[in-house]
Amino acid sequence: MKPIDVVILTKNSERILRECIDAVYKYVPVNRLIVVDGYSTDKTLEIVNEFQEKYGNVVFTQDRGTRAEARQKAIEMIETDWFMFVDSDIILSKDWFAKAEKLIKDDVGAVWGIEIWSVLLKTRILDLFLRLTLKIFHRRGGTHDLLVRRKAVEGIKIPYYLHTYEDAYIRSWIIKQGYKVLGVYDPYCIHYRPKVVWTLSKSVEFMVSDIKYAIRNPPLILSYGAYAIIVGHQILVHKFKTEN
Fold this sequence. Notes:
There is one protein chain. This protein is an alpha/beta fold. It has two domains: 4-193, Spore Coat Polysaccharide Biosynthesis Protein SpsA, Chain A, CATH 3.90.550; 196-244. Helices cover 43% and strands 23% of the residues. It has helices spanning 17-27, 44-55, 67-75, 96-101, 126-140, 166-176, 200-216, 221-243, and strands spanning 4-10, 30-37, 58-62, 82-86, 90-92, 108-117, 145-149, 180-191. An eight-stranded mixed β-sheet has the order 3-2-1-4-7-6-8-5, sandwiched between helices. α1 (17-27) runs parallel beside α2 (44-55), α5 packs across α8 (221-243) and α7 runs antiparallel to α8 (221-243). 37% of the residues are buried. The mean pLDDT is 88.
């Protein structure tokens, strides 16, 4: 396959952004790196400029809207037959693109590598987490590390108000165009969720949002319930480490 455009949405992403982009260039044949930034006030732009100086193929733009608006803007900038969404707080696994490319057939519109929370690496619950995550993806979708056929999203207009679940809309659109959306265990990405996620208030916020989605998708209720238990366990672990 020819080099592809890669899209990264950012906003104050300095925490892991350098490692994220470095893995993109290492494991993906990049035509252009399209960065859609939400007017960051940290060192995000400085980091992006480092890669522009090194590779000379970074396209930087800014948008104050929702994630839906940012993704829509990026899609309309794509020039290659395939492109990729990469979240700014993940690191791609080794040979990500080479492995994903082997899964592409005429009826495949997108390939998603499963996300693995960094805090769950080498834990006993990792296998359970992976099975739950893939089950949720098959209902909801995801854009952590999503390889997309441009033809599969032609004409898409993501509802501008979707700051979350825009990934579900994209998955649904691709399927309605007659393509498959594959969720796989390998390749994958490591998701370095921010520390604020492991606070009670932020976790409750996330869980309430997920419960609203689960209610509209009953088969996911048990999966999201198990997710809530995993998150609760990690909050306790984080709290213990902080206090000691």
